[in-house]
Design a protein that fits this description.
Blueprint lengths: L3 H15 L6 E4 L14 E7 L2 E6 L3 E6 L5 E6 L12 E6 L3 E6 L3 E6 L4 H4 L13 H9 L6 H6 L9 H11 L12 H18 L33 E4 L8 E4 L13 H10 L4
Antiparallel strand pairs: 1-6, 2-3, 3-4, 4-8, 5-7, 6-7, 9-10
């Protein structure tokens, strides 16, 4: 599940593989760009902006991609077999003399003028791993709608960019409140430390192959993915339910003992499990 740290890692891989090199091949396997050929253009850099990736080319062009739930960029050496999935899932190929980047299952792929990047990322709040990180501005945006559930506010990339379902659940656990607690009801001392805590979690994980929030050996996460296993702190069964309007999968995990605040009805976790048991992954 790509979140800000995962996307940052993808940007670094693409940058290290292609930056400063001329493309020997480009192949965009989406109808809109099927005839576009960037062969010969030099790759300038790749940067992450929240969950968005921007790969810039000489001549003022930018490739904007977003991984969403299942997308991935894979980098291969010359002659190496591509292993990111079946060929029909490939959406983009960018090759230099010694490295080839292959984009699988990319839900967003568009070419635009570099001067127009703000059109696709200008709405984002402060980037937790970016040079524009501003904890005070992030907190102000979170608190702007005090009635909104904390989990939904954290997922809104207009407030702060980079948090997904995993960090949402883990942050709420560390703050000791449920994701359904209205933002305005979050105690002032915990609200004040929230942006810094979020930034430290992503910063600590941006170089790790396996995301870790607990500091405990053999246990990477406090609550995410742990239902119905016992909470690592109090041994109460961790619960899971959807959060939001149901238009997107928002699996949300919490401990009903360690976290205070409103929560869904007891049958909500069962509904979530039954629906996803029928859904291919």
């Amino acid at each position: 599940m790509p979140e800000g740290d995962t996307v940052w890692q993808a940007a670094r891989r693409l940058h290290e593989a292609l930056a400063g090199k001329a493309l020997t091949r480009s192949d965009f396997r989406v109808p809109k760009y099927a005839t576009v050929d960037l062969t010969g253009r030099r790759v300038l850099n790749t940067v992450a902006r929240g969950k968005h990736l921007l790969t810039r080319f000489e001549g003022g062009l930018t490739l904007h991609t977003h991984l969403r739930m299942e997308g991935a960029w894979k980098v291969y050496g010359t002659g190496e077999r591509w292993r990111g999935g079946p060929a029909h899932q490939i959406r983009a190929v960018l090759a230099a003399a010694d490295r080839t980047a292959v984009g699988y299952r990319l839900q967003v792929l568009e070419l635009l003028r570099t001067t127009e990047e703000e059109r696709v990322v200008g709405h984002l709040g402060p980037d937790l791993l970016g040079p524009d990180w501003d904890p005070e501005r992030a907190l102000a945006r979170l608190l702007a709608d005090p009635a909104r559930p904390l989990g939904e506010a954290l997922l809104d990339q207009r407030n702060l960019a980079g948090i997904g379902n995993i960090y949402k659940s883990e942050l709420c656990f560390l703050l000791g409140v449920t994701p359904w607690l209205p933002v305005g009801a979050l105690p002032a001392d915990r609200a004040e430390k929230l942006p810094g805590l979020a930034q430290r979690l992503l910063e600590a994980n941006r170089d790790r192959p396996v995301r870790q929030t607990t500091g405990l050996r053999h246990h990477d996460l406090f609550v995410y993915g742990r239902a119905p296993r016992p909470c690592l702190r109090c041994h109460t069964s961790v619960r899971v339910a959807d959060q939001g309007d149901g238009s997107q999968d928002r699996p949300t995990y919490w401990c009903p003992t360690c976290q205070t605040g409103p929560a869904p009805a007891p049958d909500a976790p069962q509904r979530w499990r039954e629906r996803h048991r029928r859904t291919p992954t």
